[in-house]
Amino acid sequence: MSAHTGFIVAAYAMTAVVLVALVLWVVLDGRVQRRRLADLEARGVKRRSAQKVPAGDDGT
Amino acid sequence: MPLIDYANPTRFLAFSAKALPWLCAATAVLLAAGLWLAFFGSPADYQQGETVRIMYIHVPAAWLSMFGYGVMAVAALGTLVWRHPLADVTAKAAAPLGAAFTFLALVTGSLWGKPMWGTWWVWDARLTSELVLLIMYLGLIALWQAVDDFGRAARVVAILTLVGSINIPIIKFSVDWWNTLHQGESIFRAGGPTIDSGMLIALFTMMAAMTLLYVALLIGAMRNEILRRRAYQMEMLAAGEGG
Q1: pLDDT (tens digit, 9 = 90+) per residue, B119-168?
Q2: Is the pLDDT of residue B32 over 60?
Q3: Within a domain: B81
């Protein structure tokens, strides 16, 4: 055991906490956004690019 | 397909969905190898003893704090010059990651400094410029939150990001330009590295692992940002139709 073991452990522990927090942030935010999009699609809301103009309604 | 075609968000989502699992697997393998080398495959330092093992997380964190800002600076050019569709998505996703790695560089540096220098902190050029980098990251994150319009926020953030990029060479060369308590360059220097080859292999493995982790997190955060904007636009469209 080094006289400075506490400093080494603290540095690695802090790094692990921050990196796990980053991974959780990305994973959980991804779930929230996918759920948000799924709810909108379930309500019948479509992206502008996915909306089709019915034949004859586009002025042609 | 030319690389520029991946600038299309839909193509980026499809491509990144396939690439991300492989990237995560490579990160896990390299991180496991790097940690093994850091603790068991590299020697203790003849002066610092076991404390040198903090280097294997401190140096990659410091590298990524600057690399992350470099990514944002390139993205800022993409926003202002080329109006690249993914540029401001990249800049927004990269800011919290850069802030986190800068925070880690400062904290692990402090935990290394106390037993080696006898102090947690000194206002020398390297430490101070790294702290300024953290403050810049936090300011840019706050700016993203403060401006509602995505496009306007992207342009304002891009200009400030480019102005702030002057700090990156200051951080890098601060140990050469000023007399600092922080040690001078010992890896990328004329005349070659001055540290043991066993330590160098462990350090490069950890730097590669942490860089892959950064890239995986960045891609994940970019995917989330694209989905967030899609959902926002759909909500606005629904509100417009409802009104």
Answers
A1: 999 999 899 999 999 999 999 999 999 988 888 999 999 999 999 999 99
A2: yes
A3: yes
Distance in Å, alpha carbon of A55 to nearest chain B alpha carbon: 20
Contacts of B230 in chain A (CB under 8 A): 37, 47
For helices B9-39 and B197-242, the axis angle rounded to 10 degrees is: 150
**What's the token pair of residue B189?**
């220097």
Is B17 in a helix, a strand, or coil?
Answer: helix
Minimal C-alpha gap between A60 and chain B (Å): 23
Neighbour count for residue B49 (Cβ, 10 Å): 15
Q: Which of A30, A36, A48 sits opposite B237 (nearest CB)?
A: A48
What is the count of structural domains for chain B?
1
Q: Give domain status of residue B3, yes or no.
A: no
Quick one: DSSP state of residue B13? H
Domain of residue B226 covers: 13-185+192-242
Mean pLDDT estimate for chain A: 84
Does B52 fall in a domain?
yes
Q: Which of A3, A26, A40 sits opposite B224 (nearest CB)?
A: A26
Greater confidence, A52 or B232? B232
Domain membership flag for residue B103: yes
User: Residue B15: is its pLDDT beyond 80?
Assistant: yes
